[in-house]
Amino acid sequence: MKKVTVAIAGALVATAAFGFEFAHPNLKDAYGAAGSAIHHIELAQANNKGVEFGGHAEKAIELLRHAREELEEAEKYRDSHR
User: Fold this and answer.
1) Does the predicted TM-score (pTM) go above 0.85?
2) Sequence spans of domains, the chain
3) What whole-number distance in Å separates Cα of residue 74 and Cα of residue 49?
4) Rounded Cα–Cα distance for residues 78 and 38 (Å)
């Protein structure tokens, strides 16, 4: 059941990537790569049979989500300064 939940969560992450439109292809790729990294970390957590990663995986997810927010802000800044 965990695998199904993680797969659904991964699909939601991928869908969320299209919630914001990036005009700059490199920022769009970076945003998608961060989303993919989040998905892979979540899969690792789900497949790790209850053994935690000492909070480091959660911290990595938090930082990757923050990076995605910063990429959105970078795109907004670029759009407003053209």
Assistant:
1) no
2) 2-80
3) 38
4) 25
